[in-house]
Amino acid sequence: MTSTQPLKTQPTVRSCPFDPPGDYRTLREQEPVVPMTFPDGVTGWLVTRYEDVRTVLADPRFSTKGTLPRPGGVDEVPPPAPGMFLAMDAPEHTRFRRLLTGQFTVKRMRQLTPAVERIVAEQLDAMAAAKGPVDLVQAFALPIPSLVICELLGVPYADREEFQRNSATIIRLNPSPEEFRQAQTAMHGYLHQLVLAKREKPTGDLLSELVHSGELTDEELAGVGVLLLIAGHETTANMIALGAMCLLQHPEQLAALRADPSLMDNAVEELLRYLTIIQFGIRRRALEDLELNGRQIKAGSMVAVSLASGNRDTAHLADDPERLDVGRPHSPHLAFGHGIHQCLGQQLARVEMKAALSALLERFPALRLAVPVEEVPMRDDMLVYGVHELPVTW
Length: 394
Description:
Layout: H1 23-30, E1 33-37, E2 43-47, H2 50-58, E3 62-63, H3 92-101, H4 106-111, H5 113-130, E4 134-135, H6 136-141, H7 143-153, H8 160-170, H9 177-200, H10 206-213, H11 218-248, H12 251-259, H13 264-275, E5 283-286, E6 290-292, E7 295-297, E8 302-305, H14 307-310, H15 346-363, E9 368-369, E10 391-393
Parallel strand pairs: 2-8
Antiparallel strand pairs: 1-2, 3-5, 4-10, 5-8, 6-7, 9-10
Helix pairs in contact: 5-7, 5-15, 7-11, 8-9, 9-11, 11-13, 11-15, 13-15
């Protein structure tokens, strides 16, 4: 199939809260690299197959510069703040990544497990005292990664209401230009003041270590802090809440997990693959003319990739990728991206998800939704998919 007209936008209509839009399946089968019109009116490409997504994310001929999503009504993408290495190519990106990689190794993240389990237990105790129904997002899923990233970075948890509000605005699909600028300015200003405080008085945390490494300016440190703080709580919070909802709606999978808790590592990987919550915003720009799966991509063209579509590709995962299977043997997936920009905190996310879901299912064996599933408000309006609220009882 060859399109006569570009797609007007990325597919957004879901028939099930746990599945990506069904149009992706058709595109993978018939037109895996398809012309698409971006919100600013520029025509580029949408990539939907697993191997093509990996190619775009790993090939240095595709750049991240100037590809961050812009809020509605903004004519030009503002230059990224210093330290926002998500919008940098090598070797500039390498300078930041090198400083941070050692802080997020598998070994170091696993050493955090007791602290994470303590935080999880405290939230469950508070839930039990509340006696239900409760909103699992506010009572459990959001506090856990927020507390962990605050302890790791050295951000006062008492300030969570402000940074959670601003980060939610930044990752909304269509904030007003003024809302977007105010939220960005507030987040950067907050982290900049924190950097200055840690320069005067180190507090033994990751941000203090970065400050006193002497390798980054205060503006760069603030940009790094903003990125780590937003990514460190938004993504994992939504994976915990949406993962719990998904298990509750798949009782046979929940029963298998309860019968054999050793499946939790597999279940975490399967939920990451199956749900793939980064639904928009992964873009690259071609630095030269090139070919991708038979399509001629011109230099300067914008290319969007769908991680969720790639993770449902039967060419990569032949054993029914549309089905949730907590016992599925681990297979590489795209939930954390791929290439040099692959999620820095993926090991921490795994530790948090495993601790949170294991303890939640053990503590509340009768856990269930407190409202019909169709009444759960989904985050269709955010770059990071999930649920706005999840009323549960037991």
